[in-house]
Amino acid sequence: MATLGPSLVNNTTDGFTRQKALSTTLQARIWWYKSRFNTDIDRPAYEAFSASHPSSSPDAAVLGKLEEIQQRMGGGASASTSGQSQNQNIPAWQLNAPKVDLSKKADDAGSHTNTGDGAPYPENFQALIEAVTLGKPIPGIKEIPDTVVRPPGVTPFGKMRAPRKPWEKDAPSESTAQPSVFGDVVDKEFPPLSDEHQSGGPAQ
């Protein structure tokens, strides 16, 4: 139905195409009238009435209005026909794509000014790239040593006893002094640290 208007106007000399378009239009009108007013239309009787009363048919008025609109648009029908023949092999998404210059000029490579097209680079961007490439310290980044300073008195096992389970409330008191479930698998003390680690310096 989207091409119904151009088909009626551009193919006025093609009797078969014009008759097919008019038949499709009539079928659409009958369907719409039935869905809107719940009334069936006898198509042969309507066609016979339209043939005997051509002035009551809206087709002539529709064709005249379409021709008038296309003339106001400056011959859009002929221009669109030639354009369609040239672009028939081009995908629709490519025809609808914005027509902008996607090439980048060489003299724009060094400029990072904000033109509104995208986020600008920070002023120290080049310095950051150089620092990362050469392994230099980056300003504003805190160096964290790869060791953790261990506070004195910290052991793998805490000094507090685990609370008894509800079913252990009536158990004898000596049952709470049981050995650890880990046995001798886990060290009870952390291994000693070297002087460099204790001072918090980075490990070599």
The backbone outline, from C-alpha atoms, is: elongated
* Distance separating the two termini: 78 Å
Beta-strand content bin: under 5%
The helix content, as a percent range, equals 40-55%
| Mean pLDDT figure | 70
Secondary structure: number of strands: 0
The topology string of helices and strands comes to HHHHHHHH
Class of secondary structure makeup: mainly alpha
Number of helices: 8
Please describe the biggest sheet, giving its number of strands, its sense, and whether it closes into a barrel: none
- Give the uncertain stretches in residue-range form: 1-9
Task: Work out the radius of gyration.
Answer: 43 Å
Protein model, in words:
The longest helix is centred in the first third of the chain and has 23 residues, at 15-37. This protein has 204 residues and is an all-alpha fold. It has a domain at 4-86. The protein has eight helices and no strands. Helix content is 41%, strand content 0%.
Briefly, what is this?
By secondary structure, this protein is mostly helical. It has helices at residues 4-10, 15-37, 43-52, 59-72, 76-86, 92-95, 125-134, 195-198. Residues 1-9 have low confidence and may be disordered.
